[in-house]
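Example S7 (structure tokens).
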């Protein structure tokens, strides 16, 4: 196994001061680059998955998505194993009715997210949601679907009109968009709701965001 990092984040910043003020917190999470997952490791981790979870992998057409899913479960088990000091093989990941995975018969909460080649997992003794997005150029029309007027004003730095919702490579605007997007996604995942509820997701001071190696990561607890 290569390049698996274990973090204890002592603080994170919250730049949207009109939505919530920054608070200090301690969050444990791990991240893993799927490019470091060998074929042998992939098969080994896949073999240890619950049958229902295997079926979820099997129906994926894209090999990258398969690796993301298997690596996400591997990372969750590794994180839980380290945190609770129990064996990796004793941990069984199953899914609730809403599709949210959990560790069977263990009093621990976790959440997984992936973007591009990076997979992250956060753990907590209470409910938690995490989202990661690679900072990249996008068409900002997507912001209309998921963001409130207040959030759009923050993203653009002004009140945008129709012509502003276009493809952009502006790093400042993209950073603020993905900050908002990952915050809202982490809230939805914390609540166990689907992406259809993204626009109504309310960001609070319990949602923290930080930037790392070209990725924006938000955690709600």
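Recovered sequence:
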């Amino acid at each position: 196994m290569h390049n698996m990092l274990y973090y204890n984040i002592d603080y994170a910043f919250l730049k949207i001061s009109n939505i919530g003020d920054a608070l200090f917190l301690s969050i444990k999470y791990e991240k893993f680059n799927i490019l470091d997952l060998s074929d042998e490791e992939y098969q080994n981790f896949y073999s240890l998955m619950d049958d229902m979870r295997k079926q979820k992998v099997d129906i994926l057409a894209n090999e990258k998505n398969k690796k993301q899913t298997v690596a996400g479960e591997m990372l969750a088990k590794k994180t839980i194993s380290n945190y609770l000091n129990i064996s990796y093989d004793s941990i069984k990941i199953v899914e609730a009715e809403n599709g949210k995975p959990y560790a069977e018969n263990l009093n621990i909460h976790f959440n997984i997210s992936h973007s591009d080649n990076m997979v992250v997992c956060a753990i907590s003794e209470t409910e938690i949601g995490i989202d990661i997005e690679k900072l990249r150029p996008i068409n900002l029309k997507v912001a209309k679907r998921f963001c409130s007027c207040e959030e759009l004003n923050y993203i653009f730095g002004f009140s945008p009109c129709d012509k502003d919702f276009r493809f952009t490579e502006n790093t400042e605007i993209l950073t603020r968009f993905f900050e908002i997007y990952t915050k809202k996604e982490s809230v939805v995942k914390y609540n166990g709701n689907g992406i259809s509820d993204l626009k109504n997701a309310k960001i609070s001071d319990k949602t923290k965001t930080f930037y790392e190696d070209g990725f924006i990561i938000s955690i709600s607890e």
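Notes on this example. The first helix runs from residue 39 to 47.
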